[in-house]
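A quick aside before the break. I want you to see a complete sequence-to-structure record at least once, exactly as it would be stored in a machine-readable document. Don't worry about memorizing anything.
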Amino acid sequence: MFTVTKRSNNRVDIEFEGTLDAEGMRTALDELIDKSNDVEHGAMFYRIGEFQIPTLGALAVEFSRLPKLFGLLTKYDKCAVLSDTNWIRTATEIEGALIPGLEIKAFRKDEEDAAEAWLAG
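That is the input. The structure line, written in tokens, reads:
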């Protein structure tokens, strides 16, 4: 499951759980790109549940959308990631250090209020 909700003009929430196949990835990324179209200086909030590695087909779809996904990076200033999986939080922090202009911070699921406050601050 991958859902994208546009909470305001500059806020997109993403919930992800399970595994994605090619069609699910295509739908999810197209929805994310579409809902991010008019975002400027936005905030993104990821909630990641039980995570399974996407199928090879899903990864191929993601790679085919990379140019558009890189374009999204300029639309967002902050991204909070909520997950109870240690390696996802660690990867999030590393990714945040590597992407200029985008602050990314990871939180445990029981820190949702702190994540919301960080995004708003």
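Two observations worth writing down. The chain has a mean pLDDT of 88. The first helix runs from residue 22 to 35. We'll return to this after the break.
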